[in-house]
């Protein structure tokens, strides 16, 4: 009885732990949002926990200055290109890995994983030279292809995880019913793993969006991502803190919007479809 | 699952193979090529054999960066893993709290890495940051730009802030898969909170925990963007990790030979850990397959 009483008592305060943790997580984000609504004189001159004279100037700067907003457009273009390429290439491959055994399948699967784990720093210089040789430097497709290095393996692993959850009997029944492979794949199989495709696409989008090193190395002006534009501002003297904060807040938004829809799959996605 | 042997499956893998070969094999071959040659510019190359590797393995710079990387990884694992387990154990199992926790805890994971750096760079500043200013007004001499230990603490707290949620989410996924019957049986037996954790929850979390540890180890081992933005590798070289050093060498100084040799050594270390990771992942796939057949 006492043990039980102790346990219920312990449980009633358990919410404090996640609550404190979430408070710790939100504090730095709040500070960034807070700064983005302040004027620069308020940021550097006074110390205030909330904007006393809230202003939208910082956001206005970003939305009116092409050197700022083109960064977002560039990022979105190569991220979307990369997501489409990665998922499209990964779908048949993941199906092959989840349904068939073939010569060298395990080695191939492992090799894909090593690319997901490869440090981008190792590839920065050779990528630069490879894409220079093809005349692709400073184009969106260069970054999109380079990000395939880690996003294609990611998509294959995640999709394979989801596809293995679909019983093989469904494939066999469909073939007996006279479905051809392409028709079966599009009409029956794709709807069954729709959530898996969504999760894979989300993670490709996310990892391409958060990557800076390769994107920065492969671009100079025309395809420069927002992330690189932000670091350039950091190193300049006479910082415009308010604009920097506003730019940061705007990069958080894409993730924040879709987070609710993928909340149950976040762990699975980060663990490459293996939870 | 019983898989049929079918070599035609290669055709389905082909697009992936071509894509990844283009973006991984060709660049890697370039690196191998540079690592055994020397150049004096004008695209003239000379065979250098293993010189660069010997130079690398004898240089203090490489071992110091490697050491810093390992220390960093060990510290963040020692903090993030127990903290992550503790938070996951205390998370609500049902009700409105579940989506609330999941959404807010995932938030740092989805923020671009350089913005994570920017957030903490600003947050820690003594003049305008909440953390820096608060510490400063409390009389703590905190400055991550000039003080080595402050820079390290800032990077470690930042990494905890950024990635502990990954451990939490993975552990939570393991915990919710435990059937209620286990806990009822434990209650009937009068098991203590500790023995419930030790004999029911921990064994069930073992695999997800292993994945979390490996993922955190590998990602912290190739960390680049966040310390680059916050400290730029300084003060001095005190936070220069392998990635930062490598990029400095390859893109900043264009020392192709040494950078290539370092890339290969770095890649081999990653390869070793990837193999451990792969073994862990796929050994379980085999187990579930057997379980399905019974």
TrEMBL record, chain A:
Transmembrane regions listed in the UniProt entry: 12-33, 76-97, 109-128, 140-163, 184-210, 241-262
Keywords: Cell membrane, Membrane, Transmembrane, Transmembrane helix, Transport
Domain ABC transmembrane type-1: 72-262
Record localization: Cell membrane
InterPro entries xref list: BP-dep_ABC_trans_perm, MetI-like, MetI-like_sf
Pfam families, sorted: BPD_transp_1
Membrane topology reported for the UniProt record: Multi-pass membrane protein
Gene3D superfamilies with a match to the protein in the record: MetI-like
Source taxon at top rank: Bacteria
Family stated for the protein in its record: Belongs to the binding-protein-dependent transport system permease family.
PANTHER family: ABC TRANSPORTER PERMEASE PROTEIN, MALTOSE TRANSPORT SYSTEM PERMEASE-RELATED
UniProt-recorded name of the protein: Carbohydrate ABC transporter permease
Species per Swiss-Prot/TrEMBL record: Roseibium litorale
UniProtKB/TrEMBL annotation, chain B:
Topology term for the membrane: Multi-pass membrane protein
Localisation per UniProt entry: Cell membrane
TM segment ranges: 12-36, 70-89, 101-123, 160-183, 208-225, 259-280
UniProt superkingdom: Bacteria
Domain (ABC transmembrane type-1): residue spans on this chain: 66-277
Keyword Transport attributed: yes
Keywords: Membrane, Transmembrane, Transmembrane helix, Transport
Family, per entry: Belongs to the binding-protein-dependent transport system permease family.
Name assigned to this protein: Sugar ABC transporter permease
Protein species of origin: Roseibium litorale
């Amino acid at each position: 009885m006492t043990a039980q009483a102790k346990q219920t008592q312990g449980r009633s305060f358990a919410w404090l732990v996640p609550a404190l943790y979430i408070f710790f997580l939100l504090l730095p984000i709040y500070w960034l949002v807070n700064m983005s609504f302040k004027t620069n004189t308020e940021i550097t001159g006074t110390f205030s926990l909330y904007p006393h004279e809230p202003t939208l100037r910082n956001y206005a700067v970003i939305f009116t200055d092409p050197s700022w907003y083109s960064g977002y457009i560039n990022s979105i273009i190569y991220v979307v290109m990369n997501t489409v390429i990665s998922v499209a290439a990964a779908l048949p491959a993941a199906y092959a890995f989840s349904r068939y055994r073939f010569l060298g399948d395990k080695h191939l699967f492992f090799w894909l994983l090593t690319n997901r784990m490869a440090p981008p720093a190792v590839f920065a210089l050779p990528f630069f030279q490879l894409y220079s040789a093809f005349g692709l430097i400073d184009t969106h497709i260069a970054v999109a292809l380079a990000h395939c290095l880690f996003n294609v393996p990611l998509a294959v692993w995640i999709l394979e995880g989801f596809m293995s959850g679909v019983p093989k009997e469904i494939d066999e029944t469909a073939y007996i019913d006279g479905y051809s492979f392409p028709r079966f794949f599009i009409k029956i199989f794709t709807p069954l793993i729709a959530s898996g495709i969504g999760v894979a696409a989300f993670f490709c989008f996310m990892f391409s969006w958060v990557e800076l090193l390769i994107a920065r190395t492969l671009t100079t002006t025309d395809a420069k991502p927002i992330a690189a534009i932000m670091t350039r501002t950091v190193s300049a003297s006479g910082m415009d803190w308010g604009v920097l904060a506003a730019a940061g807040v705007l990069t958080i938004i894409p993730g924040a919007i879709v987070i609710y829809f993928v909340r149950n799959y976040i762990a699975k996605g980060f663990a490459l479809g293996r939870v | 699952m019983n898989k049929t042997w079918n070599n035609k499956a290669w055709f389905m893998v082909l697009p992936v193979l071509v894509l990844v070969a283009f973006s991984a094999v060709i660049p890697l071959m370039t690196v191998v090529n540079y690592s055994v040659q020397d150049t004096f510019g004008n695209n003239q190359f000379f065979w250098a054999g293993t010189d660069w590797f010997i130079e690398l393995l004898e240089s203090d710079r490489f071992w110091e960066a490697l050491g810093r990387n390992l220390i960093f990884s060990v510290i963040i694992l020692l903090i993030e893993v127990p903290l992550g387990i503790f938070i996951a154990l205390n998370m609500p199992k049902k009700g409105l709290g579940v989506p609330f926790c999941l959404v807010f805890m995932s938030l740092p994971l989805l923020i671009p890495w350089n913005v994570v750096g920017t957030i903490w760079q600003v947050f820690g500043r003594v003049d305008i940051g909440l953390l820096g200013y608060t510490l400063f007004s409390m009389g703590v001499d905190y400055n991550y730009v000039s003080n080595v230990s402050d820079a390290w603490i800032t990077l470690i707290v930042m990494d905890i802030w950024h990635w502990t949620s990954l451990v939490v989410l993975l552990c939570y996924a393991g915990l919710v898969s435990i059937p209620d019957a286990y806990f009822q049986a434990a209650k009937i037996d009068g098991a203590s909170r500790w023995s419930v954790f030790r004999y029911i929850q921990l064994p069930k979390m073992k695999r997800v925990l292993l994945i979390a540890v490996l993922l955190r180890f590998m990602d912290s081992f190739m960390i680049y963007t966040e310390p680059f933005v916050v400290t730029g590798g300084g003060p001095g070289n005190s936070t220069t990790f392998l990635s930062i050093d490598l990029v400095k060498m390859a893109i900043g100084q264009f020392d192709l030979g040494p950078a290539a040799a370092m890339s290969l050594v770095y890649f081999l270390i990653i390869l070793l850990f990837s193999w451990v990771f792969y073994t862990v992942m796929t050994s379980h796939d085999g187990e579930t397959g057997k379980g399905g057949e019974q």
